[in-house]
Design goal:
It is globular, with a radius of gyration of 20 Å. The protein is an alpha/beta fold and 374 residues long. The protein has helices spanning 60-76, 86-89, 97-115, 119-123, 142-154, 170-179, 198-202, 222-228, 244-252, 263-266, 269-281, 295-304, 354-360; strands spanning 5-21, 24-38, 41-47, 129-131, 133-136, 159-163, 185-188, 212-213, 235-237, 258-261, 286-288, 328-329, 339-341, 351-352, 361-368, 371-373. The chain contains 13 helices and 16 strands. α7 (198-202) links the parallel β7 (185-188) and β8.
């Protein structure tokens, strides 16, 4: 496909409510979008990096620089046949997976549109609907948390995930389990604990959790393997899994029993599908994690979640949980059964509200091969 132009833009989107994890609180999202024009079609990608390099080494600003100075001009100078060629095209740049995913996912979107099929079908998806869960951040009180859980359970979500950290864990789980004994419950520590906390983490077994996500270091397999031997609760790895090789190493070392796949974290659809396949072949279930995406990134997550081994409810929830107004139409909605229907429309399956995107844009750069025009 011929690349006619690449536009990179930043939007400011205020969250409906602050989202707190073990490493900070997010109130507003700086959303970076890639808009790639090719022979009359437009593919969209979203950068899932945070405002600060907390979840990963990347941030909004580092991704902007790498895309405008390195990846964007390189891509603009090529004519990729498909999204699967992007890892090779970007191969001279080490790391920077979230930046790479921003562009690669837009190419996959273009490819699906060119073929006249849905992005889900292009990826090899087999599902007509996907099961949905929600991730609930750390709250100012347990009472406030219980109210939020009640609202999400009433909305039909099939799994509740609680962010946790030392001091916001066991008492919280006790209160939640007492109030909601039958719900599917998991927790996510975002690397807030250390191996010296193993005895404390072992007490999580009494709360019938679906999983405990990334309890230890963000770049570790070895100590997670040691910890998993102490726990009955399955460990799910998130930050540690950057690619298929990491997934294979973690599975071989028995560091986890579940894997969370995030498109940005692994570098885009090509590597996400490879991680999915590696886990599927070895009987390890996967699910799709969220990064407070706008509707564009959310539509990509929906397509990815249609693959066969995404057997656990992911964090792909409704637009209205995060935004007063999303930048796609229709907005993502979740049924009373806690499911999202997979669109069979070509590409992402959702139209971009370009007028709203333009209104929310705070900076924009046009990228062409070996030239920048701001």
């Amino acid at each position: 496909m011929k690349i006619d132009a690449i536009y990179l833009r930043e939007l400011n989107l205020p969250l409906l409510r602050p989202f707190q994890t073990s490493f900070g609180t997010t109130k507003d999202r700086r959303v970076v979008l890639a808009e790639i024009h090719s022979e009359g079609l437009i593919g969209w990608g979203e950068c899932t990096a945070g405002e600060h390099p907390n979840f990963s080494e990347e941030s909004v600003d580092s991704c902007w620089q790498v895309i405008t100075d390195e990846l964007g001009p390189t891509l603009a100078a090529t004519s990729p046949e498909n999204g699967g060629q992007c890892p090779r095209i970007f191969g001279a740049v080490r790391g920077n997976r979230m930046a790479k995913a921003t562009l690669e996912n837009a190419i996959w979107d273009l490819e699906a549109q060119r073929q006249g099929i849905s992005l889900s079908r292009l990826l090899g998806g087999t599902r007509n609907v996907i099961p949905c869960g929600v991730s609930i951040g750390i709250q100012s009180s347990i009472g406030e948390l219980l109210e939020l859980i009640e609202r999400e359970v009433a909305a039909g979500y099939q799994r509740i995930k609680l962010k946790c950290k030392p001091g916001w864990d066991v008492e919280v789980f006790e209160r939640v389990r007492h109030r909601f004994p039958g719900i599917t419950l998991s927790c996510d520590a975002n690397s807030a604990y250390r191996l010296k906390d193993a005895d404390h983490l072992a007490t999580f077994d009494s709360f019938d959790l679906l999983m405990v996500e990334q309890p230890l270091w963000y770049d570790d397999f070895y100590y997670h393997s040691m910890l998993q031997k102490r726990l009955d609760t399955p460990i799910c790895l998130d930050e540690s899994i950057r690619n298929r090789r990491d997934a294979l190493a973690a599975i071989e070392m028995e560091s986890c029993q579940i894997i969370n796949i995030k498109l940005g974290r692994v570098g885009g659809f090509s590597e996400a599908v490879a991680v999915h396949n590696a886990a599927f072949e070895r009987g390890i279930p996967v699910w799709c994690g969220g990064m407070l995406e706008s509707g564009i990134g959310r539509s990509h997550n929906i397509a990815l979640s249609s693959l066969e081994n995404f057997s656990l409810p992911g964090d792909v929830s409704a637009s209205k949980r995060y935004w007063a107004e999303d930048i796609i139409e229709p907005e993502v909605t979740v049924s009373a059964k806690g499911e999202i229907a997979i669109s069979d429309a070509p590409g992402r399956g959702f139209e971009v509200r370009t007028d709203l995107v333009e209104r929310l844009t705070v900076r924009k750069t046009e990228i062409r091969a070996h030239a920048l025009v701001s």
